Amino acid sequence: MNIGAGDQFKPEFLAVTPNHRIPAIVDPDGPSGGPFPLFESGAILIYLAEKAGSALLPRDRAEQYRCLQWVMFQVGGVGPMFGQYNHFANYAPEKLPYAVERYTNEVARLHRVLEKRLGESAFLAGQGYSIADVCTFPWIRNADRRGMDLAVYPAVKRWHAAIAARPAVQRGVAVLADCHRQGSMTDAERENMFGKTQFAVR
């Protein structure tokens, strides 16, 4: 999907996700034996881990819910708040000090929550690597872009380094690097990604 070009608004993509956002998948061999569309990253991770019988989603019910709470922490906290920081600090056509400060503070607070948890446990869900780590790790990469110094959060830094050393993660990061956009967005691309934003001037 080229979201800068507006592919997310095409009818065939809207048939998969009414929210016109990535990620979205179609499993050709879904629960009923036919194609199964699914959107939202948290739901996709849970679905794929369950379908594969993966250790990335613990089987023990208590451990499973411990994992899912940290997935929801990323889905409802880390992703949206880091995303808002990124928008207001890097993409907004007008820099709004209140918005930048508000999301800078929230990014720091969420790092403190992660630091406390990872000071108690090797990974977010416990001693094993899980989908909670899979979905949170990308947001912690390149912390300096959010004004964060991981040296201030040694447990997060330790966790980040352990995940970054995993061969599968390195392969995924390499794919991301190949796809990385160079240069700045055009106004049309920004509008496709974020919608038209109007700022009141007082």
Task: Describe it.
The structure is a single chain. The protein has 202 residues and is mainly α. The chain is 56% helix and 4% strand. It has helices at 11-14, 41-52, 61-91, 97-120, 131-140, 154-164, 167-179, 187-194, and strands at residues 24-27, 36-39. A two-stranded antiparallel sheet has the order 1-2. The radius of gyration is 18 Å and the shape is globular. The model is unreliable at 197-202 (pLDDT under 50).
Give the SSE map:
Elements lengths: L10 H4 L9 E4 L8 E4 L1 H12 L8 H31 L5 H24 L10 H10 L13 H11 L2 H13 L7 H8 L8
Antiparallel strand pairs: 1-2
Helix pairs in contact: 3-4, 3-5, 4-6
Multimerization state: single chain
Order of helices and strands: HEEHHHHHHH
How many helices? The count is: 8
State the shape.
globular
Main structural class: mainly alpha
Major sheet strand order: 1-2
Helix content: 55-70%
Number of strands: 2
Our Rg estimate from Cα atoms comes to 18 Å
Give the end-to-end Cα distance, rounded to a whole number of Å: 38 Å
Residue stretches low in confidence (pLDDT < 50, at least 5 long) are 197-202
Largest sheet: 2 strands, antiparallel
Q: What is the residue-mean pLDDT, rounded to a whole number?
A: 88
Beta-strand fraction estimate: under 5%
